[in-house]
Amino acid sequence: MQIKQIGLWIKAVRAPFFTATIVPVVLGATLAWHDNSRLNWQKFLLTFIGVAFIHAGTNLVNDYFDHLSGCDEINKNCTPFSGGSRVIQEKQISAKNIFLAAITCFILGSAIGLYLNYLSGSYVVLRLGVVGVFLGFFYTVKFFRIVYGGFGELAVGIGCGLLIVAGTYYVQLEQLPLRVLLVSLPISILVAMILFINEFPDYLADKAVGKKTLVVILGQQRAMTLYHALLASTYLSIIFLVLFKYLPFFCLITLFSLPLALASFDVSRKNFQKIQELLPANALTIGLHSLVGLLLCAGLAMDKIFVVK
Asked: What is d(CA 159, CA 36) in angstroms, rounded to the nearest whole number?
């Protein structure tokens, strides 16, 4: 495969957005190491690769079915964060090949998941994986079209937050306490917010084809109020988790990310109806997700290293 073709497929799978699934894998593994002082690197890498395949498949199948619905074709307000990869619209890769690549990615990711499930000797990984694949594949597929019914943000929060953190933790320790699900909450909210803020530039195109995202359902003004409420709830959830000892005190270092959150709040408040001016808020939300996730990992590591138990 030529370098140009590789570049096109990197563009098609929207690889820069893979932080949305890398961060929860790292968080789940760090939490497992914090709890039991061990980390199986082979299982970690397999989890990482499997999740990456499912993420790539989700992005590809999303592009394919948004092409069929005409949503991406009529979207004249594409940005680096929204409107799809555009490889079909720009005739760089055929729709058929995008769909075949999506199916291939889902098969490869599922195969890795089945192997990890086999190693665990139970069906927990299988159950989590089935839900994850369902949410990814049927996100835009006809008959389900999760995102078309206003549940896209919830699906992304669960699929790219809770399920990945929980699955990664279970693969490592073969147990799944309630605490793990609670710890996944801040990262689940933030990854849902990435999708949410990226829906604002697509508002007119989504509305035209009946794609009822939360922005379309609520309208831009109320949707931005909800975005700000979710932003606040991210930090409130972390404080709650620390106060009730689900997370160690060191995880309050996530509060150092507040300047990014405040910047995103200010930009989005002023520019939620202005596509180009809103772009810094889109970028800040992605950065905030990564930073908060990494700071949570750092807080767990500091507690493990410095606190005698």
From this structure: 25
